[in-house]
Amino acid sequence: MNLKLIDKNKEKISFLIKDTEAAYVNTVRRLIMEEVPTMAVEEVKFIQNTSALYDEMLALRLGLVVIKTDLKSYNLPGECKCKGKGCAQCETYATLKKIGPGNVYAEDLKFKDPKIKAVYPKTLIVKLGDGQEVNVQCKLILGKGKDHAKFIPGLVYYNAYPKIEILKPTVATDAVKVCPRNVFRVANKKLNVEELEKCDLCMACVESLGKDVISVEGSKKDFIVFVEPWGQLKSQEMIEEAMKELNKKLDEFNSKVKDLK
Ligand SMILES: [Zn+2]
């Protein structure tokens, strides 16, 4: 197996995995989305809610607020020394108190732990009319995407590595226009593949020029993986945590295999 970074910026990372198979890449994708813990509001205690939203709706919206996650300071409740009873290492709190008129934003949450904050401060939670009040206490815990979608750390997807062959020399500027990813350029009156790794195998060029002129195929063993964090964790952290989880699972499997004897 071979790994090569294709692109990395604040919003997303993409890398090439060579000499592997789709099942493995899909395992990586599922591990990142389902097994990497992030922090979110899990319980809401209502002291007052005279807003237009039911308690349940408000609690749901609070659960979806993206929280900067510190995996070093907190444990998953099930893996904590307190055995899930709840302690400072596996849960933290926030309060939210506001009287209308005005909007309640994620930035209005007051966190007990000063290191914790909402990633997008202007996330709208509810609009308050004149005299309407929201006063709640929230409990935040670490959780996994497989238990609730609010814990999913981001979007992960992959494409087969493209292979584009221009079978007949062509001036076809149509391919340049029709390609939504700007893969082609025309230089010296010849069609060239300029940005191969941007191709997502949509086949618009093949449909436009014909199979006898151009061929586009996805590799069966090379894949481009995209990781787009929602903001709780950085893309690098998401991948590293997923690999830790995979190792944990393999260790567990290994020890159970030994017990079979
Ligand atoms: Zn605990």
CATH architecture of the largest domain: Beta Complex
Describe the strand arrangement of the main beta sheet, using strand numbers. 1-2-12-9
Span of the ends, CA to CA:
32 Å
**Main sheet record:** 4 strands, antiparallel
Q: Strand share of the residues?
A: 35-45%
Q: Would you give an account of this structure?
A:
By secondary structure, this protein is α+β, with helices and mostly antiparallel strands. It has 2 domains: 107 residues, Gyrase A, domain 2; 114 residues, RNA Polymerase Alpha Subunit, Chain A, domain 2, CATH 2.170.120.12. Helices cover 23% and strands 36% of the residues. It is built from 5 helices and 12 strands. Strands 1-2-12-9 form a 4-stranded antiparallel beta sheet. A hairpin with a 4-residue loop joins β1 and β2. The longest helix is centred in the C-terminal third of the chain and has 25 residues. The structure holds zinc ion.
